[in-house]
Structures are given as C-alpha cells and as structure tokens.
Amino acid sequence: MTSFRPDMSVEEAISIFPIGVNEVEVFNESGEFAGYLTLESLFGAVQQGELTKPIRHFILTNAPVQSLEQHSISYSQFQSFFQSKLCRIVLNSLYDGVYITDGSGITLFINKAYERITGIKEEEVKGKHMSHLVEQGIISKSASLETIRTKKPVTLIQTIRNERKIIVSATPVFSSSNEVMYVVNSVRDITELIRLKHELDSQKLSYQKISQNSLFPEQTGFQNLVIGPSTFPIFQLANKVAKTDAKILLQGETGVGKSLIAKYIHSRSSRSNKIFMELNCGAIPEHLVEAELFGYEPGSFTGALREGKIGIFEKANGGTLFLDEIGDLPLELQVKLLKVVEENRFMRVGSTEMREVDVRLITATHRDLASLVREGAFREDLYYRLNIVTFDVPPLRERKEEIVPLLEMYLKEFNKKYNENKKMTPECIEWLTNYSWPGNIRELANLVERLVVTTFHDTIDVGDLPPFIQQIFPASKPKTLKEAVAELERSLIIDALKKHGTTRAAAKFLGISQSAIVQKMKKLHIRLEN
Ligand SMILES: Nc1ncnc2c1ncn2[C@@H]1O[C@H](COP(=O)(O)OP(=O)(O)OP(=O)(O)O)[C@@H](O)[C@H]1O
C-alpha cells in the first residue's frame, strides 16, 4: 500500500489517494504516525490553489468522526420528494453538482451544475446503472456503488471520459430497516483549479528566468521590474541604445511604462551620474510650455518672475531630458525644439543670446505621431529627428503573462507597506488576468493597493473586486447558498459595525447576542480595527 508522507505535495497525494476511503494515515520518514489526511481537507487545499504545498499543512491529528443519520422516512416519501418540482428547483440552484442514485445504483437525478461540470447530460445517464457507466468509460469509478457496498459515506476522485477530474462525496440515505435507499453524491470540479495553478506556476517560472537576466543587475535600482517575453526585447534594445546618444521615441498607452523605460535608458547610459529631468508637455498650459522648456529673461512677459527663470533644457544640461506627451507640443514650439535637437542651441524667451546645451533627449507619446504628421499637426522634420529609435510599448492586455508577476510584486510591496499578509485566490487572479486594464500597470498597482487596504480578510477573492470588474464576469461563478448567505451576513455585520462602532451596539442593532456577533466575525474574518 502507498504510504503518505508529510512532505508530499497536495497534488501527489490526490493522484494516489485510494478509492473508497475518506481518510488515510500519514507517517513521517522515521515511521512515526503524523496524522490523518482527509479528502475534505485535500479539497480545501485545492480550492486555495495550494497544490504544491506539503500535505503536512492539511493533516489532522485526531481521527475524523463520521456520523451517519438514520431516520424513519419511507421510500415512497423520498420518492415523491425527489420527483417534486421544489426538489428540482433547489438542487438546480446549487453551484456544486448533485447526482442521486437509488439503493441499487440506478441513476435517478442529476442537477444542472453536474451537467455543467462534467458535460454529461441527464438523458445519457438517467435510469442507467452505475456499473454500466463505468463499463462505458463515462466515469472512471462509482462512489455510489462503493457507498452501497460499504454502507458508508465515500469520497473519491473520479475522471470523466478520461478528461475532467472531479471530487465526488457520496452519502447513503438509510431506510428504517438500515437498507441503503438512496445515495446522494455531491460533486466538485478540480480540473479547472489544477489547470489554473499550473498556468500560474509556469508564468512565474518564465518571469523568474527573465528577471534574473544580466540586463537587470542589482545596482541599476530596477530590481522591482516585471519583464515578460513581449517587453524583454524592448529592455534588451533599450540597454543597447542607452550607450549611444540616439534620440528615442517611446509610443504607448498611458501607464504602460514609458517613463520607466526612459529612466532605465538613463540609468544604463554614460550620463547615469548626471541629472534626469522629466516634463509632461500636455500637463502645462500652452502659453507656458515655451518658458518651461527654454526659460526666460527677467520681465520678458506679464506674470513672469522678476529674476527670470532657467528652463528645463538648461537644468538637464549634461544629463537626460524626457519630454512626455510630445504630440501635445504646439506647432510654433516644434520649430524651436527642432533647433535644439539639430544644433544643441536655443534662446530663452525674451533673449537674443544663443545658449548651448548638451542633453540626451527621450520623447514619449500616447498618440499616433505618424498620423499627426499626416494631419499637419506635427512637423515631419521634427518627427524624423525624434524617432531615430522607436519603442512601441504594448498595453498590458497584450502582455498578459506579466499580469500575475505584477500582481504578486505589488501585493508584496503593499503588504509590506501596510503591514498586511494578503493573498489572492486563483480565481481572483484569473479574473484579473482576463481584465483589459485600460489604465495599464498604473491601474493595476492602484487596484492592488486599494484591495490590500480595504479588504477585511487575508484572502482576496473575486467578491472583493470592484463592481466594474465583477460586471465583466457576471456568470462565471454562481454562488452556493452557503456562500451567498455568508456574504450577506458579512456585509450586514460590517455595516452595523461601521454605524454603531462597537460589537455590543452592532449586536443589539442586528438582534443577536454580543458573543454571536464576535463568533461570526471570527468565522467571516471581520476585524474591528478595519
Ligand atoms: N515593467 C514594469 N514592471 C513593474 N512596474 C512597472 C513596469 N512598467 C511600469 N511600471 C510601473 O507602472 C506605473 C506607470 O508607469 P509609467 O509612469 O512609466 O507609465 P507611462 O507609460 O509613462 O504613463 P503615462 O503615459 O501616463 O505617463 C509606474 O508606477 C511604474 O513604476
């Protein structure tokens, strides 16, 4: 018989868990008894996405108790209950699959969730004996037959048509004469969670490989970067052109990392010990852009400082100047910029004296400069001068492989900042991977910070995501009755605590005792200090 060791992974344990038993004994290396591993706790581990964690985290030291209820409800009473409309409505509203057989193993009913999870239709199995379904290869083994044989509840892992893996828990319903009248199987899907976990693991792996690359040695100060397969070539080229003074144009949506790439180029250039200056041409009023860029002489226009002002070109002398939103630069200033680009010379506003500067220019835009040129809104000569090297930085929705590492990186950062220990469920991560992130990495960082600060429990789940994300994935996860009730309880308790301040006052408002509210808060992970 296979032995279970505490350091074995959850996934390994699932694959060798014997049929027909609810729990196994776990022994450590020296042969000492370490505890019991139940299918229920294994399933809990799978739900938390902990497939690679050692089973020692999930073993119980005391033997699990199984209680079997016996009752005096007759066969015909059950028969009419199972055939009733009410029974169908209730069972079809559950998120978990339900499969009911009679005491001989003949299929009586399957609910909609079972059809969804397994792809098996009711007409395929209704009236058929479980052994027939096993013979036909529809299911790998039958929990119902095991239960009928042993007269005990059975939990096992079943394969459907050699593909999907599900966990089936079969519970016998006894007659007053202790015969098995029915078997009620509850069914949960694990293939999806296993697939998700593997996907996350492989994404993490490729990210680690890339981030350990020599392009990012510790001393660059860029160790908190996520570089996926589609941005790796960008950083590789940035690293190469950093050594030259070639003009660089960065194109991409807001929040994709243009400013960060500009800083990276500066940090890898011979100017790295000189200044890096940044100006967003779209963020300052048009009539002030010239003065900001080139400075002005004393009293050169109304509202100007008496002593005059140094422009950003002069401030950046010797270093790198990053001009963001260059597409917003007024046409008349484009001529002046062209002069600096071509001759490294310019005049302050109100001056006739030419000043020389030595600046490495990097520009960026979220607009399509080529089409601005065609429309006559951007000078063609300047356009060709600025984009000796062009980087098209893709939006986050086109670099999906970076989303998981970014989520992890920001979770770590904000957990540290706010002294928290939050993690995300695999399902939550999957939703966020499929979200389109119009605000790109800036939006992602902002959302993670908000979730870390505002959630009350350590595990962030899809229910914690903002409504605009939840609306995109409306039907992806119907709730079980238990989950819906817990969610409602949670929000009622939080509202009452917010309104009334203390557990005593909130309990009074909700019409329950103080100890009941404290117990519920514990169960629902609600903390008063939050
Ligand atoms: N590869 C990356 N890894 C980790 N964080 C990143 C990465 N790229 C960008 N960020 C972070 O995302 C945020 C937005 O980046 P950045 O300001 O460079 O974008 P941008 O394209 O210049 O935006 P905008 O056009 O609005 O100025 C910053 O907090 C930055 O640190």
Automatic annotation (TrEMBL):
The keyword Transcription applies. The keyword Hydrolase does not apply. Keywords: Aromatic hydrocarbons catabolism, ATP-binding, DNA-binding, Nucleotide-binding, Transcription, Transcription regulation. Gene3D superfamilies: 1.10.8.60, Homeodomain-like, P-loop containing nucleotide triphosphate hydrolases, PAS domain. SUPFAM superfamilies: Homeodomain-like, P-loop containing nucleoside triphosphate hydrolases, PYP-like sensor domain (PAS domain). It comes from the Bacteria. Residues 234-453 form the Sigma-54 factor interaction domain. Residues 150-202 form the PAC domain. Residues 83-135 form the PAS domain. It holds the Pfam family AAA_lid_14. Coiled coil: none annotated. NCBIfam families: sensory_box. This is HTH-type transcriptional regulatory protein TyrR. It comes from Aeribacillus composti.
